[in-house]
Amino acid sequence: MSDSVKHECAVSMLRLRRGIDHFVRKYNTPLYGYERLALLLEKQHNRGQDGAGMACVRLNPEPGEPCYALEKSNRKMPLADLLERIGKDMVSRGDSPEVLKEHPFCGELYLGHLRYGTFGQQGIDACHPFVRPSSFLNRTLLMAGNFNLTDTRKVFQRLLDTGHHPVSRADGYLILQMISYCLGKAIDRNAYNVNLAEVLAEACGEFDGAFTLCGLLGDGSSFAIRDAAGIRPGYFYFDDEVAVVSSERPAIQAAFDCTTAEVRELPPGEALIIGRDGKVEFQPCLPKKPLRRCVFERIYFSRPNDADIHRERRALGQKLVPSLLKEVNSDFENTLFSYIPNTAQVSFHGLLDTLNRIACNNGQIVRFGQIAIKDAKFRTFIADAASRRKFYMHIYDVTYGLIRPGTDTLVALDDSIVRGNTLKNAILPIFDRLNPKKIVIASAAPPIKYPDCYGIDMASLKELVAFEAAVDLLKENGRTAILERCFENAKRELAGDPEAMTNCVRPIYDEFSDAELSAAIGRRLRPEGMRAEFAVVFQSCADLAECCPEHTGDWYFTGNYPTPGGFRVVNRALVNYMENIDARAY
User: Fold this and answer.
1) 313 shares a domain with 276
2) Which residues sit opposite 270 in a β-bridge?
3) For site-directed labelling of 177, which of 216, 248, 341, 378 has its Cα 20 to 30 A away?
């Protein structure tokens, strides 16, 4: 994606199901668990660049000693900083297994997190894992997750109604307090027979939003739970040595050398419970909902070395071929195909495969190459903001000599277009310097029309180029009364029954065809002074659904939200837009 969009975090939980001495004998280290957790996080580092945290719980700790160790970092390159600090402490103690057994990060339970902040606090306190300490082991709770709630006011009120005095409105804090409260009630009823699934059902059963939560208790119990619609991803694997949960399947495969089939999806709405004895079980937990797995995970966020994601992204590129050939009049001789690094690369391979088959059948050759090169560190060497803006377009460079000036059409594939700022201000100007006859930007995703409230930093309509283009069309065609009508409907619905809300933004898009909207987006993205002809080609929602059939969470494109909170957010976003309120809609 050419735009910088902050998104979901990564969470990993690991339980050693054999004693530490087993790992010393087999792997010659008592730190097997720590090393595996570090690898799990490293393989997901793309999901979190604002903070990192690790926690370790030791079974049967000695009285007078803490039952857990916790380290966090919000420095630049936080995961590297975190692992370096813990590693230096280990090295300073020596390499004797008996000495390392006493290290705080030598234990049986581990919890790790990578934070990609969407908004709000960026301090160390915002980094996971969060802790609710207690002098009772079974009341000590460490929690980390990949989540975003749309109903934090309701959760806040629930805590107030039970006598709490919450000191924050952040969803992470509220989730931790709610689970801790329900856990405490269960312990008070029966301290020796607490059903963690019942605790989670009471605490999380009314949450509106998306979440994959992992938790460790000081007594050695642990759990993982995923929202009932399966919006956020989660995978698990266990054998006789370990039980592990993580946000991405390839991370587990890399850490434990297991096959794709052996790593399974964490069942939405069920609780994975690991007892103090290491027994793994699944229990029904949350009310059933239709599955709405986030499709944006497949297009952009998740790493493409997952077998299914790789196949789906290739299919997305293949589906664009008919529209692109129509846009360039099937002129293979005078067209260069390329992509915008880095996440569009796999989709480009699918595009290229199909183009090659068509060209070969007609005795033609597909011209392709990497036209754009991203200099990821360019801006870090420029100190003042004014100079950074001046050099903004140079965060991308181009390969010279591939385009024949005045003759060639350049087709460049991007995975999605959100705001379009980088396209307009950096990519298109530098492409235009090559003097192509025409530039075509292809998006592997449909136009992003609606805000997100489940983890992606797209909570404002004015940040979406598709919405601004739709408003342009309304103004050009003298239909702004529709915008006012939708605004009034949104205000009325926000004052009514939350469960009965509809999407009041959708009628705005219904006024125009997909082709009209794409053309309007192209006009918005076109930089001033651009010489080349310009067009934008988007994936259709129908083709997206065909490429990713198991991931129907497409509310970004269709406005079909999976929870009532989504409809509340889209209506609030419209009200904020019309009232010129610069605030997120949740």
Assistant:
1) no
2) 284
3) 248
pLDDT, tens digit (0-9, with 9 covering 90-100), for 12-22: 999 999 999 99
* Residue 325 and residue 240 share a domain: no
Which residues on adjacent β-strands are paired with residue 335? 409
Claim to verify: residue 281 and residue 372 sit in the same structural domain: no
Determine the Cα–Cα distance for residues 206 and 19; give it in Å rounded to an integer. 38
Per DSSP, the three-state class of 283 is strand
Q: What pTM was computed for the model?
A: 0.90
Question: Are 347 and 317 a contacting pair, CB within 8 Å?
Answer: yes
Q: Decide: 444 and 347 in contact? Cβ < 8 Å.
A: yes
Phi and psi for 84 in degrees, rounded to 5?
-65, -45
Pairing of strands 409-414, 335-339: parallel
Q: What is the pLDDT of residues 210-220, one digit of tens each?
A: 999 999 999 99
Distance CA 381, CA 391 (A): 11
Instruction: Give the pLDDT confidence score for residue 586 in this predicted structure.
Output: 54
- pLDDT on residue 76: 86
Tens-digit pLDDT profile for residues 516-550:
999 999 999 999 999 999 999 999 999 999 999 99
Same domain, yes or no: 93 and 119? yes
Helix, strand, or coil (residue 571):
helix
Could you tell me which residues come within 8 angstroms of residue 543 by beta carbon, excluding any fewer than 6 positions away? 316, 319
Does 329 lie in the same domain as 438?
yes
CATH number at residue 246: 3.60.20.10
Q: What is the mean pLDDT of the chain?
A: 91
CA angle in degrees (0–180, nearest 5) for 584-585-586: 95
Do both 104 and 239 map to the same domain? Answer: yes
Q: Is residue 229 over pLDDT 80?
A: yes
Residues 6+ apart with CB under 8 A from 180: 132, 139, 141
Q: Are 569 and 563 within 8 A, CB to CB?
A: no
Which pLDDT value is given to residue 407? 96
Would you call 366 helix, strand, or coil by DSSP? coil
DSSP helix/strand/coil, 274: strand
